[in-house]
């Protein structure tokens, strides 16, 4: 994937920023859709909203995928072509893989958000205490299974589980209002006054 997003200022004179997420191995689509790209997906999974902190406000931004082994290296030796041919025929016994910065599970994501949001100042003590009431037997909220109060739809969005409407609604509202639609704060500069 290669995506150039032109500057909203003056594309002809504004600088060019090359964006390669993590890596190699972390998809630049993560940066494009969840970090610094011009739009973020809405929770409905079909529409977008503007990222008012997008880097293309001031620069042209080139997003390039950089999975391991994409071939952005080179050699000056005479057997460059031979090495590619030889490497393509090697038998590989792939038994696993590692993913950096991946979103592997909606459950793990939901369960990590409350502590993160509280300690980053996204939510205050009243919201934190309300969410804490959903896990009265847990002293450290990072071990609370908030996802148990949600039912995940095919779109990956967590909806309140009808078995416990209070906690389900609180956690779904927390995600909707404080995380997924965080439009008034720059998520990469939350400590700025």
TrEMBL record:
User: Which SUPFAM superfamilies did the record assign?
Assistant: alpha/beta-Hydrolases (SSF53474)
InterPro entries found in the cross-reference section: AB_hydrolase_fold (IPR029058), Peptidase_S10 (IPR001563)
Entry's family note: Belongs to the peptidase S10 family.
Classify the source by domain of life: Eukaryota
Q: Where are the transmembrane segments?
A: none
Q: Which organism is it from?
A: Acrobeloides nanus
- A Pfam family of this chain: Peptidase_S10
Official protein name in the record: Serine carboxypeptidase
Q: What Gene Ontology terms describe what this protein does at the molecular function level?
A: serine-type carboxypeptidase activity
């Amino acid at each position: 994937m290669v995506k150039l997003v032109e500057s909203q200022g003056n594309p002809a004179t504004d600088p060019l920023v090359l964006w390669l997420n993590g890596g190699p191995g972390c998809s630049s689509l993560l940066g494009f859709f969840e970090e610094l790209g011009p739009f973020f997906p809405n929770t409905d999974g079909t529409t977008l909203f503007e990222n008012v902190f997008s880097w293309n406000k001031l620069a042209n931004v080139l997003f390039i995928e950089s999975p391991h082994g994409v071939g952005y290296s080179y050699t000056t030796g005479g057997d460059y072509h031979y090495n590619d041919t030889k490497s393509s025929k090697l038998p590989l016994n792939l038994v696993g893989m590692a993913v950096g910065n991946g979103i592997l599970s909606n459950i793990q994501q939901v369960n990590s958000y409350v502590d993160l949001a509280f300690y980053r100042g996204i939510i205050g003590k009243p919201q934190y205490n309300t969410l804490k009431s959903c896990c009265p037997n847990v002293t450290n909220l990072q071990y609370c299974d908030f996802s148990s109060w949600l039912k995940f739809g095919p779109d990956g969005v967590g909806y309140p589980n009808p078995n416990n409407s209070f906690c389900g609604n609180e956690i779904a509202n927390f995600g909707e209002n404080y995380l997924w639609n965080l439009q008034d704060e720059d998520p990469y500069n939350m400590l700025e006054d």
